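input
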Amino acid sequence: MENQTQKSFIFDTELRLVVLTGVKARSLAELRQTLTKVSGSSIFFHTHQAYLAHNFQKPIYYNDFSVWASQTLREEALAEKLAAIDLLAFTTIRELREAIIQTIDAYLAEINRPTYECRPEEAFHFCRSKSFVLPIGVIAHDVPEFFEMLPLISNASLYFHFFEARLRLGRRTNDFSRWLTDQDRDDLAKAIDELNPYIRTLDELKQDIIRLGVNEK
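output
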């Protein structure tokens, strides 16, 4: 995170421990009901964890709920609706949770048939993650150095500052843009804010941010 006194950006990373909650669902109705009760960290985990995973090919669905609806419940139309939820539109887990529940409710209202109940071994198991934030020893003292340091950071660090920051700050921005705004570089902050991380891999996102700073060297 950034140090306001030194006006430096301190790059952090996040170590995550995935924990099984013991809560599971075997049907769409059970999934919908359970979504109202599980922790916010569980909602975040199942809608975001796939973006941190390194995939040689982009998966059809990043959202775990979409994957389960498609592969286990065989509700492809619902899977597409869940995947179409614009994660950029939300700055709180509460809003995201409500959007997922509303999507399921609307789908259940549309169909005129019973939904599939899967076998116990196919149940959706809710997980959550415990996070530990640590500095990685990389510090940028000014804007040009910030862009010089970007190639040195890991995808886990990028994920923390870009994905998790929006919900932590409660704003439609990220740690990078927030710091650049404090450095009176609203132009760069705006350009980074306009990059949609949900349609890029982390490697692509990093390269696109680096390209924005080419003229700063």
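quick obs: The chain has ten helices and three strands.
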